[in-house]
Amino acid sequence: MVMPTILADRYASLDYTESTNNHVFMKSCTNGYFEQNKYHQHVQVEEHNAAPLAKQLIGDALRERVESIDHENCEAGEEDTFFVADLGEVYRQHLRWKLNLPRVKPFYAVKCNPDPKLLQLLSALGTGFDCASKAEIEQVLNMGVDPSRIIYAQPCKTKSYLRYVANQGVRQMTFDNADELRKIARLYPGAELYLRILTDDTSSLCRLSMKFGASLDSTDSLLALARELGLNVVGVSFHVGSGASDPRAFLKAVQDAHVVFQQAASYGYSLHTLDVGGGFCSDETFEQMAGVLRLALDEYFPAHSGINLIAEPGRFYASAAFTLACNIIARRTIQDSELINNGTMTPDTSYMVYVNDGLYGNFSSIMFDHQHPVAKVLRANGQTLYDTAAAEANTDGDGVEYSIWGPTCDGIDRITESIRFPVVLDVGDWLYFEDMGAYTKCSATTFNGFSNEHDVIYVCSEPGARALLGL
Ligand SMILES: Cc1ncc(COP(=O)(O)O)c(C=O)c1O
Fold first, then answer.
1. What EC identifiers does the entry list (predicted)?
2. The domain spanning residue 362 has which CATH number?
3. Based on the structure, what is the number of domains in the chain?
4. Are 445 and 452 in contact (CB under 8 A)?
5. Among 10, 103, 157, 376, which residue is least crowded by beta carbons within 10 Å?
């Protein structure tokens, strides 16, 4: 992954230069390069060297925990699945955001992962928060965040929640239909409204536009109704779908938003904010998506227009920061009976392994978020293998084959259909899964009586984040 170099001149409040513990930040700035297509401008940033420290801290936390468990005698649940969260990763993502989308203020989408320390760090970094329910809004307000840093980004709101936000002074919210406008007119006429428009979300993992968003055919009449009801429309919002992969979706959405700004002006509204939603992945596609978005914004909403730009990124911040460790609670040996019977070959032994987390738990991301978490071996044969070659799955067809299953009685509770490792795994061994921070814990259930409350061990590979958190 390309990581940002901290730009000393532009981000003074976050800037530091350090060269200790394999943790080198360079005070330098690259100007980026431009491809021929003006909508494919990238900010190319230098990779800094935080990865070894991050791996070391995560590895130490995993090792300490799993090696401290006496699997033969421990209390029920002591070997439960657990997370290690590197808050330094969140901090680096924030810098990466600032570098690539300097004009766009992020309002973190709490739904993605409402982890309290993650929210605390983001609050200290000065982000806003996108909330979709009373509980999310309450959690953020209880942290001391000013209501002006919250957007209630749910176009179809519960009436009692609307009364709640009116009492709390959370003014910003989205709408996309006439019924919602009438509801808001009755319950919170002073709200600051964002008209959420439809996008082309066909390239995304989780499509949202079949449920939310006003088509450009309907925006004019919605603005007319808002005016008639005396409501305060202040901006336009959109979401190109969670886990989007086609940057052109951002370009089209920005162009459409520009049209709606002009429509609004014809009704006497002077819209002041564009909300470009979420959809940004944390992998290397981010630079490309952000590059297209940045140029589209510069063209249609240039700095001199005075329009504020905000966004609602979720997985971009949370995904890579969380690593999940699961214990193998049972194993079933499978022998290929055909091979045994005809006796011409050594029978291939494979295994079904059952771990203490699954699709009804933190792997809910497989069902709801279309993810494919990849297992690695954390501990086998009495050895902790984190971040070694022996931890990795074989991709060449060699090694022992496994399928990996969750702990519930449901047959769909399968994490991995087939994976090969160089080692033979047994009950009591551990697996780990990286990139488990987005849409995992938040949608876990307690089906079959398995807990969805799992420990999070926090580490922090960035001194800046440690300082902000007072660690
Ligand atoms: C309204 C809204 N904003 C933001 C997000 C966060 O999206 P992502 O995690 O893809 O950035 C979502 C996700 O579903 C959403 O529905």
1. 4.1.1.17
2. 2.40.37.10
3. 2
4. yes
5. 10
Mutate to test the pocket of ligand 1, among 312, 370, 442, 443 (most ligand atoms within 8 A of CB): 312
Helix/strand/coil percentages in the chain, nearest 5: 35, 20, 40
Residues 67 and 113 in one domain: no
Going by pLDDT thresholds of 50, 70 and 90, the confidence category of residue 339 is: low
Considering the domain architecture, whether residues 155 and 272 belong to the same structural domain is answered as: yes
Cα(11)–Cα(2) distance, integer angstroms: 19
Tens-digit pLDDT profile for residues 133-183: 999 999 999 999 999 999 999 999 999 999 999 999 999 999 999 999 999
CB 46 within 8 A of CB 287: no
Structural domain of 369: 56-82+320-459
Strand stretches in 204-304, DSSP E: 232-237, 273-275
Q: Residue 405 pairs with which residues in a beta bridge?
A: 354, 414
CA dihedral sign of residues 428, 432, 437, 443: negative
206 labelled catalytic: no
Distance 437 CA to ligand 1 centre (A): 14
Note whether 258 and 235 are within 8 A (CB): no
Do 114 and 248 share a structural domain? yes
CA distance 231 to 241: 28
Residue 16 has pLDDT above 60, yes or no: no
Q: What is the pTM of this model?
A: 0.89
